[in-house]
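User: I'm putting together a teaching handout on how sequence relates to shape, and I'd like one worked example. Could you take GOST seven transmembrane domain-containing protein from Solanum bulbocastanum, show the sequence you're using, and then write out its predicted structure as tokens right after it?

Assistant: Happy to. First the sequence, then the structure tokens directly below it.
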Amino acid sequence: MKRVSSDVLVLTFLTFNFFRNVSASIHEYKDEQFIPKSNAFFFHGGTEGLYASKSSSNASPNKPLEGKTFIRFEDVVFLRTRESANAKNEMQSRTGLIETIILEVRDRERIGDAFAKSNALCCTPKLAQEKFCTVGEVIIQHNPDNPLWPLRIQTFFEGKNQEANMLPTTVEINSTGMYYLYYMFCDPELKGTIIRGRTVWKNPDGYLPGRMVPLMTFYGLASLAYLVLGLFWFLRFVQFWKDVIQLHYQITAVIALGMSEMALWYFEYANLNSTGSRPMVITIWAVTMTAVKKTLSRVLLLVVSMGYGVVWPTLGGVTSKVFLLALMYFIVMEALELVEHLGSINDFSRKTKIYLVLPVVFLDASFILWIFSSLSKTLEKLQMRKSMAKLDLYRKFTNSLAIFVLISIAWVGYELYFNASDPLSELWRISWIIPAFWSLLAFSLLAVVCILWAPSSNPTRYAYSGETIDDYDEEAISLTTGVRVISDSGTKLERKEKKASVSTDLATDQREDLEEDKRE
């Protein structure tokens, strides 16, 4: 039971910090505080998936780190309180110890006294007597297959100095895995110590964290997929430009936004891979593009479900409600995306994320309910009008949408299972499929809409054509080509009336001329 409790302690220790990781490969420390845990104090310096270094035979003499995976410590400084420094003897060479510990997630049980069957992270006199450790140091049980790991780097305070500078160090990584970095100390007199500096984490092909490497390739391919879809849509649009309706312009906007979104994320990841930092301008543009695209995609599905341009020429009085829902969704989605992708995630707690995710979930549910409610009314209206072509179109759309919703529900279940079964991200090499799937699903649904509502030479199969005048809202201004049917009919009637009037006038003139001739 004690061994199990020790494992739970370390698991909780790592899980707590997994959600405080930094997304970029340059981890900045700005007067960060150490947190007490068990009988130790620690600061989480970073977590990333790293691939093993490539063969050294390919390295260039001028670039010894090319193709290498490493963690480099730059200008790392520890500052203890003045009271702690003054309490030490100036003649002593070592008056305080800070330990830097790097471990692969599979070695998490080797931190602490798992083999000594207690819950301590630091070595105690009792444990020292049992020859498990050195008093005042973190307990580490080294891996028999790799005796140097978990890796320990020690930095000492000297005399009454308040600062202790960590020597510039580069640690090469020769095994693929999820790596954690911690700074720890066991001396209670060092309480209040802060850390400054930064660490640089690099994979063999760049600074992009291991979990993001497949996503960069995915975003590149996704932008090409949107380009192909946009080309297909553009050709149809140009070919039948006289028969397009307002709905086609909205579909065009969503395609353009999707292509821009994927391209921006690709370039943002490419820049991170080459520099190790995330440019705020590109990230803000990518985040905003994502929020706008997601909002317009949902609005597009909603107005299509309402029968806009097919059953009704306008949205009528619900336009303001649709706009209000879209505005709220954009605001909460923008806030969530900004917090997730900008700055350091070290300051981003799980509670804050829940507060931002819940409004998005609520508004998504509102969109889904409104969409299916509108689809039901649209199908009923088309059945009453006996518009078989349009009814068949909307049945196909309803069936497709239902399939996508079922797939989404199933994937949400899988995502919850994936996150619950992998709290420490040991499956980091396949975790990219979670966000990639949602992007792929959105693209597939947009492609279905493009196929069903593609411009054609027979626009009446989906365009509003004013079948019943009673359904027409006289106060609304029509945005579709269907009104031209009524307008053209009225123009023809006016022309016939004018021709009849002219004929009548000519006959009257002729009779008057004949009567005058008879009088003469």
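A couple of points you could highlight for students: The CA atoms of residues 28 and 198 lie 4 Å apart. The first helix runs from residue 2 to 18.
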